[in-house]
Amino acid sequence: MKVAVIGGGSTYTPELVNGFLARHEQFPLSELWLMDIDAERLDVVGGFAQRIVEHKGNPFKVVLTTNQREAVKGASYVTTQLRAGQMEARRRDEYLGLRHGLIGQETTGIGGMAKALRTIPIVLKLAQDIRELSKPGTLLVNFTNPSGLITEALQRYAQDVPSVGVCNAPYNAKIGILHLLEKRIGKTIPEEQAELLTLGLNHLSWHRGFTIEGEDVWPQVLEAYLEDLKSDPEPEWNLDLIQNLRMLPNYYLQYFYNTPHKLEEQKKWPPSRAEAVIEIEKELLKQYADPDLVEPPAELMKRGGAYYSTVATQLLNAHFNDLNEIHVVNTRNNGAVSEWPGDWVLEIPSKVSRNGIVPLPTEPLPPVCFGLLAQVKSYEILTVEAAVHGDRAAAYQALLANPLGPLPENAQAVLDDLLLTHKDHLPQFWS
């Protein structure tokens, strides 16, 4: 079986390779193709990946290529972890936000919009290549941020190519809640017994339930979480917020619920997060180039993305082996939340089997959450239209719809700055 990784030069790749190695008996991978347009970086990361696999007895072959069509030809699964414009583009996104007093983070606000505009045409071209060259039913698994927004584009403009958006944040939340409960009861809870009930959009979701072997333990989770909040000198969330909502917001809701604080943090740059990651990656790539290194270094965790390999390989394994497992993914609603539009891509618990990704019937979020979610979804849909058609009017409207966007009087200046800042990566707006 062949799996293609688009963006194989990512420093995350060695962790992904370890995930495939850990599940090789269940997931019979024969060829792992790593594709990247940066040949020099691919040589370093890919060479390290090949040494890792060789050290484990070569259970599968690692192939390196700069040719996307060659990578996806005959693939059973294609995963994306690409970054259009590389880390320098992320740095520009961040400072674009700073210049205009807006959030520049890579998945929310103006930064997330800029990244989506660059990335959507690339991923849709990938879908076209899969349609032409891969096996029938090949699943495209998108990890590229903003994951939900990219998946929205795929579900609207490449519906004939099966796709799903995946993020490690829900899995991190699940593990965090398990640790919270384990500390409380003094014993380990097997991960496979637990299920997180969550709903929203990628990086805009609310966790509102948790079961262990089908038993609802959410009251205990909330009680333990509130106790920790009360004792924390620098709590993640305002105590009144959690007591009122009776839900745990995804961390990225800090950008919406605590925008002034996040804007103040930006004023302390440099270094921005991109600049910090650039330095981390320099050190990682230096280590990856060491011919004696055959295991991912501990410094990889500084890069972020904890449990990335677990989330990726668990999903592919569940799909291939028809396990009917429940995973929190980004997929089209299709009536699972009957009160909401069926064509919206949501982050929602879904059953994963050989037949595909099926979202589970779910109660809608309360109005206090839905108002924000609907506004952000409007922004996402407008951003998709802008990216696909090079539509400047849609891009302007997306800025207005985004709760983290500029005032109307500043919107055109922000849009002009965005398009000029990334002109080389946004040809659809300049043709």
Helices and strands, with pairings:
Blueprint (H helix, E strand, L loop, with lengths): L1 E5 L6 H10 L8 E5 L3 H17 L5 E5 L2 H5 L4 E4 L5 H14 L9 H25 L5 E4 L4 H11 L5 E3 L3 H17 L8 E8 L2 E9 L2 E2 L1 H14 L7 H7 L2 E2 L4 H4 L1 H8 L6 H16 L19 H13 L4 E8 L12 E9 L2 E4 L7 H23 L2 H10 L6 H14 L10
Parallel strand pairs: 1-2, 1-4, 2-3, 4-5, 5-6
Antiparallel strand pairs: 7-8, 8-9, 8-10, 11-12, 12-13
Short description:
This protein has helices at 13-22, 39-55, 68-72, 86-99, 109-133, 147-157, 169-185, 218-231, 239-245, 254-257, 259-266, 273-288, 308-320, 367-389, 392-401, 408-421, and strands at 2-6, 31-35, 61-65, 77-80, 139-142, 163-165, 194-201, 204-212, 215-216, 248-249, 325-332, 345-353, 356-359. The protein has 431 residues and is of the alpha/beta class.
Task: Describe the 3D structure.
With about 425 residues, the protein is α/β, with parallel strands linked by helices. Helix content is about 50%, strand content about 15%. α1 packs parallel to α2, α4 (about 85-100) packs antiparallel against α5 (about 110-135) and α14 (about 365-390) packs antiparallel against α15 (about 390-400).
Rg for CA atoms: 21 Å
CATH fold-level assignment of the largest domain:
LDH C-terminal domain-like
Largest sheet: 6 strands, parallel
User: Which class do the helix and strand fractions yield?
Assistant: alpha/beta
- CATH-wise, what's the superfamily of the largest domain? AglA-like glucosidase
Terminus-to-terminus distance: 40 Å
Residue-averaged pLDDT? 96
Tally of DSSP β-strands: 13
Helix content: 40-55%
CATH architecture of the largest domain: Alpha-Beta Complex
Q: Which regions contain 5 or more consecutive residues with pLDDT less than 50?
A: none
- Work out the strand percent: 15-25%
Compressed to H and E, one letter per element, the order equals EHEHEHEHHEHEHEEEHHEHHHHEEEHHH
Strand order of the largest sheet: 3-2-1-4-5-6
Supply the number of structural domains. 2
Number of helices: 16
